[in-house]
Amino acid sequence: MVMLRGFLVLVVFFLLGEALRLLAALPVSGGVLGMIMVTFTLMLRGKVSDELAEASRGLISVLVLLITPGVVGVFFIVDQFTGYWTTVVVALVVGTLLSVFTTLLLMKKVAGLAEEGSKHD
Predict the structure, then answer these.
(1) Is the separation of the CB atoms in 30 and 17 below 8 Å?
(2) Is-contact 50 2, C-beta < 8 A?
(3) What pLDDT, in 10s, does the model give residues 64-117?
(4) At the N or C end, where does the chain have fewer CB atoms within 10 A?
(5) DSSP summary character for residue 113
(6) Cα 103–chain centre separation
(7) Nearest partner of 46 among 120, 107, 117, 121, judged by Cα
(8) Contact 34, 14 (CB under 8 A)
(9) How far apart are CA 2 and CA 16, in angstroms?
(10) 121/118 Cα distance (integer angstroms)
(11) Do 94 and 42 meet the contact criterion of CB atoms below 8 Å apart?
């Protein structure tokens, strides 16, 4: 039951993101907007509920299934990339490096905050 409540929270934020996207005519996915809203909500609360943590763990374990449809879609439109392979490869490499660098900075910050928190105890 705990995981179901967590999924309900995620679905509600997804729907809020979709509503915001439609109302504001934004060119961003409703899921992305919903996750941004979840992030700000968690930042304001300062903690993650057990329900949301449990649902997130469940989703992380099947994350590859969320990526697969996009990869399959690219397989069927590969001929449309003719003449654009350099751009695609540069975008993939730069995007990967930026995501790895951002993750590194975030982990250093989180580790530093955790270290500071343990010193104050």
Answers:
(1) yes
(2) yes
(3) 777 777 777 777 888 888 888 899 889 989 999 999 999 999 888 888 877 776
(4) C
(5) H
(6) 12
(7) 117
(8) yes
(9) 22
(10) 5
(11) no
